[in-house]
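*Target chain*
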Amino acid sequence: MPASEMQLAALPSGIELCYQTFGDPTDEPLLLVMGLGCSMVWWHDGLCEELAAAGFHVIRFDNRDVGRSSKSSGRTTIQMMTRAFAGLPTRAAYSISDMAGDAVGLLDALGIERAHVCGVSMGGMIAQTMAVEHPARVRSLVSIMSTTGGRRVGWQHPFVLPMMLRPAAAGREAYVQRSVAMWQLIGSPGYRIPAEELRLSAEASWEHGVSAAGVGRQIMAVLTQPNRARALARVTVPAAVVHGTADRMVHVSGGRATARAIPDAELRLVEGMGHDLPRELWSTYVEVVRTTAERAGARLG
C-alpha cells in the first residue's frame, strides 16, 4: 500500500503535527519519532516501506518546531544553552515531556489506543518518556542511538558541540552544506553514506521545512531533561536498545545505560555505526522492531 498524503493533526494543546503513514491501516501501528532538528523525511521512505512490509502501519511525523508542524515561540541564546549544558537553572520553551505529550496527542487524533514506538536520538528520549509517563499507550519500545538524560552517560565528542552551536547561515545552499558536513562528522564510519545521498536528503529536508530558532528550542528541551534512569525501571513493555559503537553525537554509554535501566531490555550494539541510519543497517532496525513487537504480542497472548 503506498504512502498517504502528508496531513495535519490538530491537538487539544493547539499544536498541529504534520504526519504521514505507510502500509495497511489494519496492521499493528508503529510510531516513528525523529531526532533533534530533523523532520520526518529523515525517516527514509525506503526504511518506512520495509517496516510496513514487516507488518506495521507506519506513522512518521514532524515534532513541534520542525518541518510542517507548529512552531513555538521563545528566544534561545548561546548563553542559555551554555547554562543548561552546565546544569544551571535555565528556562526552556517546552520539555521532552511536552513533546511526548504531542506524540500521544497524535495517537489520539488517529484513534490509536496503543502503538509500538521507535525513536532515534532525541526521538528516543521522547519514546522513553512516553513509556514512562503514558505507559498505557505504548505496546513496545525501541530506543536507537539515545540516552537516559543522565549527565554521566551519552556524552558528545568534543568536535560536535562547536558545530551545533555555530550560528546558522541563511539560505538553502548554506543549510545543505552545513547538514552534509554535520552528517559526515557524526555518521557511521563503517557504513559511510555518500555525500551526494546526504545532499539529496538535506535538500528534501529544506523543502519540507526547517527552523533554526526551532532547533534552538529543541536543544534546550534536550539539555534540561531529567535523568530518566530510575523512572525507566518502571517500564514493563518489551524494549530494545540499538546503539553504534562509533557514535560521536551520543556516546555508546548512553545506550548501555538505557538498556540497564529498563527491565529485560535487549541491547544491540552495532560495530561501525555512528549517529545516522545507513541503508546497510535498515534490515537490522526492522528486525529489532519486529522481534520486540512480537515479544509484546506473545505477552498479550
The chain has eleven helices and eight strands. Residues 282-300 form the longest helix (19 residues). The CA atoms of residues 145 and 243 lie 5 Å apart.
